Amino acid sequence: MAGQTAERDAAFIVEWLRASTEAVRAESDRLTELDSAIGDADHGTNMRRGFTAVMTTLDAEERATPGGVLLVAGRTLVSTVGGASGPLFGTLLRRSGKALGEAERVSDEDVRDALRAGVAAVGQLGGAALGDKTMLDALLPAVAELPDYAAAARAAEEGAKATIPLRAHKGRASYLGERSVGHEDPGAASAALLLGALFQVSR
Amino acid sequence: MTGPAEGGMVGVVLVSHSHEVATSVATLASGLAGKGRLAPVVPAGGTPDGGLGTSSELITEAAWRADQGAGVAILVDLGSAVLTVRALLAEGDVLPPGARLVDAPLLEGAVAAVLTASTGADLDAVETAAADAWDYRKV
């Protein structure tokens, strides 16, 4: 770890999740609208419920480590969302938290490595790959840019927009076949919100 | 794998997006299993408020209720049901030890799993029987 500054603490992760929650709340209607085009019109509501529960849990009890914060946040998402985004976003946070271990302070490179592990776990859980019109289309290009948070946020945003012409190969939208073309994937849109929030709190 | 624990049968958990589907498949599978000793069959369908969806809470509760120490075969319908069970298994300590996601069609797999579990077979045999349901061609 020579040459790296371990400057990110548990509060940084809490603030990231708080900014994510605010973004999800602000964009909840847009997410649900995207999901009504190719899914079952509950993505915004589900994400909002999940992240609100995460903040309630985090505000009730302080955690000492960045990894600890992510573990409890991930577990809360799995148990409160009720749709596929629960286990998927929950796994992203949980696996990232696991990768950060017990350290009280971590470097931006640690955050990068952890999020890459989290994204890999999401791919494994859902069996999706780049180009399947899923959250991975925002996450994979984003974590490739880390630890540059600005570039990562931009890549996530572009990755989400790039799902518009794609045909869905995973999840409920895949039943629509060609009719899934022409709509932004809601999971990718949410993933872009999370990366945008991370950039916001990193400055 | 070890055999079933003393007296315990493999439990079967049926996960669906719908409470009615999970409950009805459980009733059907139990009914077709015959009159002898029946393996525990616990449905976990829908969300706690009765809506369509997947509930990690209901699944976890069902798995512990189905657990007699011989393992639990979890059968699911689709989408978030699959992902939720896989995420719960990845947690390591949420579901009972010996809980396993079984890759099988929900209805046909449930009938095969409950029948086999009710004979006192172990978890591997229950899993194989349920997965064999993929091969029941109808045409």
From TrEMBL, chain B:
Keywords: Transferase
GO biological process: one example: glycerol catabolic process
Domain PTS EIIA type-4: 9-139
GO molecular function: phosphoenolpyruvate-glycerone phosphotransferase activity
Cellular component GO terms, alphabetical: membrane
InterPro entries: DhaM (IPR039643), PTS_EIIA_man-typ (IPR004701), PTS_EIIA_man-typ_sf (IPR036662)
Top-level taxonomic group: Bacteria
One Pfam family per UniProt: EIIA-man
Presence of the UniProt keyword Ion transport in the record: no
Protein name: PTS fructose transporter subunit IIA
Source organism (scientific name): Streptomyces triticirhizae
